[in-house]
Amino acid sequence: MTVMQSTAGHRARFMGGMLVALVGVPAVLAAYLTAAGLLRLLPADMWWQSLGAADFADPRQLLYRHAFLPRLAISLLAGAALGLTGTLLQQVLRNPLAEPTTIGTNAGAIVALTIATLYAPWLLEHGREWVALAGGALSTLAVLALAQGRSFSPVAIIISGLVVSLTCSSASALLMAANREYSEELFIWQSGSLIQNGDAVVLGFSPWLAVAGIAAILLLRPLRLLDLSDEGAESLGTKPVVTRLAGMTVAVALSSMVVAAVGVISFVALAAPALVRLAGARTLRQRMSWAPLAGATLLWLTDRLVQVLPFASEIPAGVATAFLGAPLLFLLLPKLPTSPDRDGAMLSSVRRRSGWAYLLAGLLAMALLLCAALVVGRGATGWHVASAAEFADLLPLRAPRIVVAVSAGMMLGVVGTLMQRMTGNPMAAPEVLGVSGGASLGILLLFVATSDVSRPAMIAAGLVGALVSLAMISQTGRRQSIAHDRLLLSGVAVATMASAFSAVMLASGDPRLDTLIGWLSGSTYRATAADATIAAVTATALLAIVPLTIRWLEILPLGEAASRGLGLSLFRVRIILLVLISVPTTIATLVIGPLSFVGLMAPHLARMLGFHRALPQLFASAMLGGMILVSADWGGRMLIFPWQIPAGLLAALVGGPYLMVLMWKGRQ
Questions:
Q1: I need a labelling partner for 443 at 20 to 30 A (CA). Which of 365, 419, 436, 561 fits?
Q2: Which stretch of DSSP H or E encloses residue 216?
Q3: What is the DSSP letter of 379?
Q4: DSSP letters of 423-437?
Q5: pLDDT at residue 143 is higher than 80
């Protein structure tokens, strides 16, 4: 017994030392960098007297008092708040990956604040916090409503959060595109900037953190009982539903306050609780004590590092933490409890009568749509149909856009079908699994590496990025026998990296910013004849090749064991399908941008029309994907003429709510 007690004591001391080191080492490094920064700004003998001075003889004192110190304070406060928020959400939802970014809270708060800033600034007079809280609460409620039918399982919540976040992101991007004069400032703020101008933010945020901390302490006992089953918790006198609602309220309010104060600081709320748990904080009391400290030191250190890195402009702290959080998400995936059979069926598959009768009608509708997009439009005198003379002038302008849109839509529709059948997951799509994000990341890296970006170079860079992201995602799934939920969450990590890097570019003041915003938004208005040729040739080649994969696509949804039993060489089949997925995705991303739900929508629409077999579903998805993007491109040109809405944004803005409706109807 004495030996056991001694062993337990040694282990407890070791874990305690690990926790102290986890917080202490970053704190020491951050303190050193802070002191070095202070000395560069102001001599040490002036620090104290400048702290309470009423007026400043030296401008450096002004920067010290109203910029440096408030920034230091808000980094500590926001980091502590996010550490506490992540701990509460992970305990309430029993989900080690729950945090404000992954469950959609941050995206909703950002949309609400962006709308208020651009169109209703009077709402901000009563406090940005309340606007952010309203947006964050609504988006979180939407996520919980979508996940309710699957008993709030971890993967159901993350997938629902992904869909809500993508929808909110498309809305935010659309608002950015429509208000270019404010785009750079809004991008910097949304990327999580800790730059301060006075004490107002610190003084306004501190009471919220104090109240949230007191509420978390009062909820400690009932939250601890959530480690038991709901029946066990009820037998001990607590109501799990009320406890979860109270914990969620505190967490959502606190994370919304952080967004209102400094923008989105990604993944600190995920990293801090995960790191303290790995360091030995096993009980909720320990995590609630150590996670805020870890979050504060982590954000403090990150903020100091981004100020000393040798870049032309400062990287927003939220972007820097996203680069940390995405790899951490990969590391935490094996710890995620899953139930693939239930969580894989996030969308309903509505059985309809055979859809072959719709194919000819769809082709006719597509031909009519293409003709309408070519000849029908708006001008200075209103709506009109182009005459023969006008058509000759309009053809060189409209034809490349239409060919690019229809080709990209067809490619994304086919690729979405390939991915859903290969993984057996109805949520699989280039946008969701990070393939589009990987391609865009490759292209963005090319933007950084060189100032002269050619189309062949962009294709090569995008292809490499798509293949690398697919390899990473497939390897994650391979370790878990192609666990569908882990594939999705791996895609979230890749997409997060791409989003963070694009935010760096957008906040950098690069002279190519307008081109980059248009491309990221999914615009076709810079499409050329060369783009149209590349897209059309790739789409035609894809449609010619995919019929050769029909047998594989019919067998793969049966599962790995059945596929091997029927003679498939899974490694070879997957390699071929990955190439067929990555090449068209790269081309589509290059010509239409990374943001759209076409690869997710088209296969589901085809299935709802009755196309359940692989071959008809592939061609129906291609047809529907082309029609969706052509319609989005035409609508984007016409709706707010003479201004334009990027086709990818319009498709995503329609596709996101559509997907949420499908998920709602598919709840079991």
A1: 419
A2: helix 200-218
A3: E
A4: HT-TT--TTTTTHHH
A5: yes
- pLDDT at position 324 is 66
Contact in structure between 411 and 585 (CB atoms under 8 Å): yes
Q: Which of 263, 261, 251 is nearest to 127 (CA)?
A: 261
Those residues with Cβ within 8 angstroms of residue 111's Cβ, 6 or more apart along the chain or in another chain: 135, 139, 168, 171, 172
DSSP conformation class of 383: E
CB 65 within 8 A of CB 50: yes
Burial string for 583-611 (b: 16+ CB within 10 Å, else e) reads bbbbbbbbbbbbbbbbbbbbbbbbbebbb
Burial-class residue 360 by CB neighbours within 10 Å (0-12, 13-18, 19+).
exposed
pLDDT for position 342: 43
**Backbone dihedral region of 644: left (phi > 0), alpha (psi from -120 to 50 degrees) or beta?**
beta
List of long-range contacts for 282-289, beta carbons under 8 Å, 24+ apart: 282/15, 283/224, 284/87, 284/91, 284/220, 284/223, 284/224, 284/227, 285/220, 285/224, 286/19, 287/87, 287/91, 288/84, 288/87, 288/88, 288/216, 288/217, 288/220
For residue 167, what are its two tokens?
A: 């929808």
At the second CATH level, the architecture of 2-337 is: Orthogonal Bundle (1.10)
**Cα–Cα distances in angstroms (integers) from residue 543 to residues 191, 447, 471, 615, in the given order:** 40, 31, 24, 10
Neighbouring CB atoms inside 10 A of 450's CB total 11
When pLDDT is averaged across residues 4-15 and rounded to a whole number, the result is 59
Tell me the two tokens of residue 44. Answer: 């040490």
Q: Which of 630, 604, 162, 181 is nearest to 413 (CA)?
A: 604
Comparing C-alpha atoms, which of 325, 289, 157 is closest to residue 213? Answer: 289
What architecture is the 404-665 domain classified under in CATH? Orthogonal Bundle (1.10)
What is the overall mean pLDDT for the chain?
78
pLDDT at 117 over 60: yes
At 252, is the secondary structure helix, strand, or coil? helix
**What does the alpha-carbon distance between residue 547 and residue 620 come to, in Å, rounded to a whole number?**
13
Q: Which tokens hold the place of 438?
A: 């990987």
Question: pTM of the prediction?
Answer: 0.73
Cβ neighbours of 387 (radius 10 Å): 11
Least confident of 253-267, 309-323, 640-654: 309-323
How would you class 60 by CB atoms within 10 Å of its CB: exposed for 0-12, middle for 13-18, buried for 19 or more?
Answer: middle
User: Hey, where are the domains in the chain?
Assistant: 2-337, 404-665
Confidence category of residue 82, pLDDT binned at 50, 70, 90:
very high
Q: What percent of the chain has pLDDT over 90?
A: 13
Residue 475 has pLDDT above 70, yes or no: no
Q: Is the pLDDT of residue 180 over 90?
A: no
More confident site: 637 or 68: 68
- What is the rounded distance in angstroms from the CA atom of residue 325 to the CA atom of residue 265? 10
Give the mean pLDDT of 70-99.
Answer: 88
Q: How far apart are the first and last CA of the chain?
A: 51
Do domains 2-337 and 404-665 share one topology? The answer is yes
Under a CB-based contact definition with an 8 Å cutoff, are residues 653 and 429 in contact?
no
Rounded CA-CA distance 149/228 in Å is 21
> Tokens 């708006």 appear where?
378
The span from the CA of 10 to the CA of 558, in Å, is 51
Per-residue pLDDT at 351: 45
pLDDT at 215: 93
Residue 353 predicted with pLDDT over 80? no
Peptide bond into 456 cis (omega under 30): no
Q: Round to whole Å and give the CA distance between 248 and 243.
A: 8
Whose tokens are 């570019």? That residue is: 505
